[in-house]
Structure formats: structure tokens, C-alpha cells
């Protein structure tokens, strides 16, 4: 959070700036991995849900 030029308190996500603590996954991956395991699991879950929805509409 910070005060803008008008003196109003404004907040932005800490991950958008370098004031946030370094991400441990990004440090460990050191640029070798684009996706986290949790993100891949979430993606798989979404794909499974979509496939089930499609299967319900296909004869």
C-alpha cells in the first residue's frame, strides 16, 4: 500500500513489484520450469470437468 500523488491510500499486488519476498518456487526452478505442480493439477482438474461436460452433450 502507498499514498498516491493525491494523498489517497492505494494498494497493488505485492507480486507486481520487487518489494514482495522472492517466490521460493521461482528461485528453486531457476527458469527451468514455467508451471508449478499445483497449477498443473488445477489445469488437469479443469480439463477433466470440461471433458465430462462435453461427454454429457455427445451422443
Can you give keywords for this protein?
59 residues, mainly alpha, two-stranded antiparallel ribbon, 2 strands, 46% helix, 7% strand, elongated, Y4bD/Y4pK family protein, DUF5372
Q: What structural class do you assign from the helix and strand content? A: mainly alpha
Count of extended strands: 2
Shape: elongated
Q: How many helices in DSSP terms?
A: 2
Q: What is the terminal separation in angstroms?
A: 54 Å
Strand content: 5-15%
Helix content: 40-55%
Radius of gyration: 20 Å
Largest sheet: 2 strands, antiparallel
Low-confidence stretches: none
Number of domains: 1
**Can you write the helix and strand succession as a string?**
EEHH
pLDDT averaged over residues: 83
The strands making up the biggest β-sheet line up spatially as 1-2
Protein name: Y4bD/Y4pK family protein
InterPro entries: DUF5372
Pfam families: DUF5372 (PF17342)
Organism: Paraburkholderia sprentiae WSM5005
Q: How do the strands and helices of this protein lay out in sequence?
A:
Blueprint: E1 2-3, E2 9-10, H1 24-29, H2 37-57
Antiparallel strand pairs: 1-2
Organism: Paraburkholderia sprentiae WSM5005
InterPro entries: DUF5372
Pfam family, one: DUF5372
Short summary:
The protein has two helices and two strands; from the N terminus they run E-E-H-H. It has 59 residues and is mainly alpha-helical. This is Y4bD/Y4pK family protein.
Describe the structure in your own words.
With 59 residues, the protein is mostly helical. The chain has one domain (2-57). It is 46% helix and 7% strand. The chain has 2 helices and 2 strands, in the order ββαα. It has helices at residues 24-29, 37-57; strands at residues 2-3, 9-10. A two-stranded antiparallel sheet has the order 1-2. The longest helix is centred in the last third of the chain and has 21 residues, at 37-57. The radius of gyration is 20 Å and the shape is elongated. The N and C termini lie far apart (54 Å). The model has no long low-confidence stretch (mean pLDDT 83).
Amino acid at each position: 500500500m502507498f499514498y498516491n500523488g493525491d494523498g489517497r491510500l492505494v494498494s497493488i499486488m505485492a507480486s507486481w513489484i520487487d518489494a514482495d519476498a522472492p517466490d521460493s518456487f521461482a528461485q528453486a526452478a531457476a527458469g527451468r520450469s514455467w508451471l508449478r505442480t499445483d497449477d498443473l493439477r488445477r489445469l488437469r482438474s479443469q480439463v477433466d470437468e470440461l471433458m465430462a461436460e462435453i461427454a454429457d452433450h455427445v451422443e
